[in-house]
Q: What sequence folds into this?
């Protein structure tokens, strides 16, 4: 039977232990450290609902973080991550333990000091990542129930980005950058067309979906089929919208540091034309 041997108890929910395959690891789980001491052994089967950090750098960062965080929060975050893993049926990037713990500990501290932190792309996040947003709602609600701290809707958006980062194995800065890029593109569209798109409208939802998948195609280096005849027609029929689409793709290229195939410009022009028509009819 394989066992873990306790090297150090950090608190009731976190220990450092020797693993038969991974060497020294950080083990996180409800009550894992309760009444345990150095040298104790734990059967591996007993930690099926717990998390093991095997990456050396992640271990060191988490060890530094734990003494600064209330152990009840660590316990709640363990529940949150278990829930996310079950609902998505995926193996999350282990960095979520550090990123989410650090983020939520700071968010709780701000809330206790009544320091509000506005989320500039809350609506975009909800539309772009609906599953992650729903999971984040669960997380913020659980914190409210278990710790008595209401972090509010803005934090739901921030936590959703952390969840997406863990699911997709992308760094949170990249995920946040894409959400910010989409919000900025929407602002450019509204300014250029001199319109205000309702954040609750179907037009808005469609626009965000299109921009999200366009960015994903660029990120993965995928190309959409060229539509030369349609491209010429769009330039002739909707010159101002075609120019705006070009401005938007230029911004995307600059921010993503990757080339965008010309066909994306045509598809974006068609989408802009639908928005412009819808706005003029409303």
A:
């Amino acid at each position: 039977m394989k066992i873990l041997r306790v090297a150090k108890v950090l608190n009731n929910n976190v220990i450092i232990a020797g693993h038969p395959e991974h060497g020294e690891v950080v083990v996180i789980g409800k009550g894992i450290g309760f009444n345990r001491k150095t040298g104790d052994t734990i059967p591996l089967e007993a930690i099926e609902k717990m998390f093991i950090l095997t990456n050396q750098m992640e271990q060191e960062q988490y060890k530094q973080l734990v003494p600064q965080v209330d152990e009840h929060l660590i316990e709640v975050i363990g529940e949150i991550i278990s829930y996310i893993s079950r609902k998505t049926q995926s193996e999350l990037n282990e960095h979520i333990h550090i990123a989410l713990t650090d983020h939520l500990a700071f968010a709780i501290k701000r809330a206790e000091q009544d320091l509000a932190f506005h989320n500039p792309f809350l609506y975009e996040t909800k539309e772009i990542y609906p599953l992650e947003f729903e999971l984040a709602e669960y997380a913020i609600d659980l914190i409210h129930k278990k710790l008595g701290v209401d972090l509010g809707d803005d934090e739901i958006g921030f936590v959703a980005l952390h969840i997406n980062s863990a699911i997709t194995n992308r760094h949170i800065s990249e995920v946040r950058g894409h959400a910010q890029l989409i919000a900025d593109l929407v602002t450019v569209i509204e300014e250029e067309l001199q319109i205000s798109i309702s954040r609750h409208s179907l037009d808005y939802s469609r626009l965000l979906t299109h921009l999200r998948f366009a960015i994903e195609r660029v990120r993965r280096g995928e190309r959409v089929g060229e539509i030369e005849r349609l491209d010429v027609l769009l330039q002739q029929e909707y010159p101002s919208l075609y120019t705006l689409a070009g401005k938007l793709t230029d911004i995307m290229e600059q921010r993503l540091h990757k080339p965008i195939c010309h066909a994306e410009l045509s598809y974006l022009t068609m989408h802009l034309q639908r928005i412009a028509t819808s706005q003029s009819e409303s």
In short: The chain has three domains: 1-54, 69-170, 183-281. The domain at 69-170 is CATH 1.10.1790.10 (PTS-regulatory domain, PRD).
